[in-house]
Amino acid sequence: MGGIGEMLYEGKAKKIFATARPDQVMQYFKDDATAFNAQKRGTIVEKGIVNNKVSERLFKLLEAEGIPTHFIERLSDREMLTKKVTIVPVEVVVRNVVAGSLAKRLGLREGDRIEPAIIEFYYKNDALGDPLVNDDHLRLMKVATPAVLRELRELGHSINTVLKPFFAERKMQLVDFKLEFGVFHNKLVLADEISPDTCRLWDMSTGESMDKDRFRKDMGKIEEAYQEVLRRVCG
């Protein structure tokens, strides 16, 4: 490894550090929890450990299915070695079931299935509150070309095709999830993390929420839900 260098960036859930290799970085997963664009803040004990291990399992699963990711290896409970990517400032949200902002925005009934899945783009900008945007908006702002947006959409659907049955086998409904992508050597790769922080997961037998919604909505038993996701995904 050659040691960890300076901190390059600190986000809401992770710190990114330089390594001895210019094309690799180390992600450190924190226990800090935020919601509603960081208006609500708190701590979920061992969240960082859960998210690191769950992300490792899912990145490996996706790599095995031919989907490129930034994952290299998990170094410790909270540390992951990844490729150093240039993040595309577009959050890709894949929705299989009506929930959250989609239900509010369109007046749809939470829990209704969406067949086939839909994809939404959000412009990654904290100052603007990560607004929902369409392809034309992103082209107008020169954030992404039509070709890149097409590829993001295809990757979103491909990832969903792998993850949805994986979670279903473990008695979890993959309601929706957020993806971030980066460019590594001129190629789009999946970056960030896939975890109970970035996925909405409902227990298939009880319908109970097993994700960050428990923190958002003060539902209690947050740590227990995260540990249960870890047990089902990695156990």
TrEMBL record:
The keyword Translocase does not apply. Its EC number is 6.3.2.6. It holds the Pfam family SAICAR_synt. Keywords: ATP-binding, Ligase, Nucleotide-binding, Purine biosynthesis. One of its GO terms (molecular function) is phosphoribosylaminoimidazolesuccinocarboxamide synthase activity. PROSITE patterns: SAICAR_SYNTHETASE_1, SAICAR_SYNTHETASE_2. It catalyses: 5-amino-1-(5-phospho-D-ribosyl)imidazole-4-carboxylate + L-aspartate + ATP = (2S)-2-[5-amino-1-(5-phospho-beta-D-ribosyl)imidazole-4-carboxamido]succinate + ADP + phosphate + 2 H(+). Pathway: Purine metabolism; IMP biosynthesis via de novo pathway; 5-amino-1-(5-phospho-D-ribosyl)imidazole-4-carboxamide from 5-amino-1-(5-phospho-D-ribosyl)imidazole-4-carboxylate: step 1/2. InterPro entries: SAICAR_synt/ADE2_N (IPR028923), SAICAR_synt_PurC (IPR033934), SAICAR_synth (IPR001636), SAICAR_synthetase (IPR050089), SAICAR_synthetase_CS (IPR018236). One of its GO terms (biological process) is 'de novo' IMP biosynthetic process. Signal peptide: none annotated. Residues 8-232 form the SAICAR synthetase/ADE2 N-terminal domain. CDD domains: SAICAR_synt_PurC (cd01415). Belongs to the SAICAR synthetase family. NCBIfam families: purC. PANTHER family: MULTIFUNCTIONAL PROTEIN ADE2 (PTHR43599), SI:DKEY-6E2.2 (PTHR43599:SF3). This is Phosphoribosylaminoimidazole-succinocarboxamide synthase. The gene is purC.
